[in-house]
């Protein structure tokens, strides 16, 4: 199989636990691009949260793709042109935000450049700002400040409460939305049908690439559809059990150059 595109989750996959890309993994991905493969960063993060890794991997020079918000927004790395975007219905967003006021979760929304919260000292708020290199604005009410297009609603919740909260916050909206755990302390609400696989499918159509020509790497529940969609789905050694079961192979962990370990074999076995 001649692969043409590598789809990469970021946290827990491309990034080590200290939020860096190791030299070995970087070199493997630069080599793949030099051989003609395209890299797509596929993350739940807002677009600015992808820029650091985009620059490290030189995606602007190699026609890379940015798939942000779990597939809700797709851009070309070289000029940031938006290729696709799916907007959260405004009325539904307000309804959800009002609903969340009754639960011990911290809603975090963004306009693509800045986060908005009702408590800037809320659980994991500062972590999210650092992780995406974005500023945060504290407002009295999220519903009152919502004068911009919204792609997703992020909720931070303490890990010991997450699985109890997930069905409670999601049940009234289960016909229109998908609520997914994207980290031990995050729940994300997205329009139904929106996921990384859908973002990757649209990207493949734009680039005239078939799913069989895609290698994808992931570690979490929100990578599951992407792993199943791709011709070669690779779960990191630190991935959740569901992802490992669905993947074509399990590689080393994100701290052990798992991506480089797999690519060295896949791309030298007639795959590039």
TrEMBL record:
It is an enzyme of class 3 (hydrolase). Its EC number is 3.1.3.-. Keywords: Hydrolase. Pfam families: Hydrolase_3. It comes from the Bacteria. The keyword Protease does not apply. GO terms for molecular function: hydrolase activity. This is Cof-type HAD-IIB family hydrolase.
